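Continuing the batch. This is chain 6 of the set; chains 1 through 5 are on the previous pages. Same settings as before, nothing changed between runs. Recording input and output for traceability.
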Amino acid sequence: MTDTIAALRRAPTTQVGARRRVAVLIFGLIAVVCSIVISLSFGSRGVSVEQVVEGIGAWFTGQTPTDIGALAVQSRIPRTVLALLAGAALALSGALMQAITRNPLADPGILGVNTGAALAVVIGIAFLGVSSALGYLGLALVGAFITAFFVYFVGSVGAGGTTPIKLALAGAATTAALSSLVAAILLPRQAVMDEFRYWQIGNVGRADWETMAVIVPVLVIGTIVALLCATGLNGLALGDDVATGLGVHVGRIRVIAAIAGVTLCAAVTSIAGPIGFVGLMVPHAVRQVAGPDQRWLLPLSAIGGAVLLTLADTIGRVLGSPGEVEAGIITAFLGAPVLIAIARRTRLKAM
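Output for chain 6:
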C-alpha cells in the first residue's frame, strides 16, 4: 500500500522541481494581490492610492465614505470578489475536464457545458418565471450536467472510443445547436431578451453579496472535492490499466472529478453568464511552468484563473469607458489564438 501511494504521488513524472513550483505559487499569490489592487483602482473613473485605501478601510468598518473616489472603490469590491471566485472556479473546472478526459482541448465552453447551463436558465426565465439566484443556480446545474453527459456520450460513440478530437467536435456541435435554441427562445420575447442580454455575454458587473452568498458554498465544496481528487487524477494520467494496477478506482475518480468540474462551471455560469476560454488557457499555461502534477496544477490553475478574469474585467472597464466591454468578450479575444495554437500542436494525442 505504501509503495502504491508513493507511485501515485510521483505520477506523472516531471522534471519540474519543488523550488520552481513554490516560486510559481509565490508569484501567483503576488499576482492575485496586484490584480485586486488594479481592479479596485482602474475603471471608468481613475482613483488614487489614498482613495483605494480609504474605500477599503471604510468597507471593512461598515462606513460610507464621503469622497467620490473612495465610493467608486467600494462599488468595485463585489465585482472584484466575483471575478476572483469565477476565474478560479472556471480554471479549476477546465483543469479537471482536461485531466479526466486526457483531452488538451477540454474546456467548459468548448465542451458545451456553459451553453447547456445558459439554455436551462433561459428556459427558466422565459417559461417558468424564474428570477432568483437560487433558481438560476438550480437550472444551471441541471443544464450543465445534461449537456456534459450528452457530449461525453456522443464523443464516445464509434470506432476508437473517446478521443480528444471527437469530444471537441461533439462539444462544438452541441454548443452551436444549443446556442440556436437560446436565440430561438429569446428573439420573440423582448422582455426575456432584456433580462438575458448582459448575462449572455458573460460579465461580473452585476455582482452583489446576496447573490454570491448562494453560490459560494457550492464553489467551496466543489473546490475541496476537486483538490481531493488530485492524487487519483495523477494515476489516470498514466492510463487506465496502469492506474487500476496502482489501486485507483478509475471510474469513481472520473465521476467524482466530473461532478466537481461541472458543478463549478454551472455555479459560475448561473451568476456571471457563460465565460469561455479561462478553463482552456490557464491550465495549459500553468502546466508549462509547473508541470503536470495535479496536486500543483489544480491549485495553481485556480490562482491563475482568478488573476486572468480579474484583469480581463478591468481591461474591459478601461477600454469601454465610460461604459465597459464585458469580461467574456476579453477572454474570448485572448482565448481564440490560444485554442488555434493548441489545435495545431502535433502532440495533441500524447497528453
